[in-house]
Amino acid sequence: xxxxxxxxxxxxxxxxxxxxxxxxxxxxxxxxxxxxxxxxxxxxxxxxxxxxxxxxxxxxxxxxxxxxxxxxxxxxxxxxxxxxxxxxxxxxxxxxxxxxxxxxxxxxxxxxxxx
Amino acid sequence: xxxxxxxxxxxxxxxxxxxxxxxxxxxxxxxxxxxxxxxxxxxxxxxxxxxxxxxxxxxxxxxxxxxxxxxxxxxxxxxxxxxxxxxxxxxxxxxxxxxxxxxxxxxxxxxxxxxxxx
Lengths: 115, 118
Hints:
A: globular, B: mainly beta, 6-stranded mixed beta sheet
């Protein structure tokens, strides 16, 4: 069965360190997204990609970067981790939308703590 | 202004009763989609139901239905015959099909925590 996975599931790091969160999907979806979830804020979009070599900034992109070298993977990098980046991170993917349903499928999430 | 508003931070419902979770949205896009997701305490995000702005009928998926009132810009989720397993956070989300690009990203509300009492 197709799926979307994230690793690691839990990560503790120190302020100033570079951290990379992995996301891998086997749906063969063109669209991939990274969100962060914080209490009281719902899910907020960090970065997104509509295909290989395409990346775009979302609502809360400062301090994060992504790259898309193949269809399956969209790693999220925190260049210099800050305590404000302590959060739960979700990766999602979807097929091309147009006006069809094409819901986003979410990974299980990564809980990141920055000390 | 928020694009997706969920005014109920938390709600309680008795098992086997129906419950309505409110969602209002704000967009000038003539084409958009509305989604509801469930997030149980285990943390995963589960897609429940979708309503397209041009759909003539309200969407239904099993015990879930979407009360879509386009003129009022509301897309309330109705859960019939609540079960203990329905206890979770519920998120309403919108995709703007034109303003958001043809592959439009999702804009999420802040969620409603539903607790089902036995």
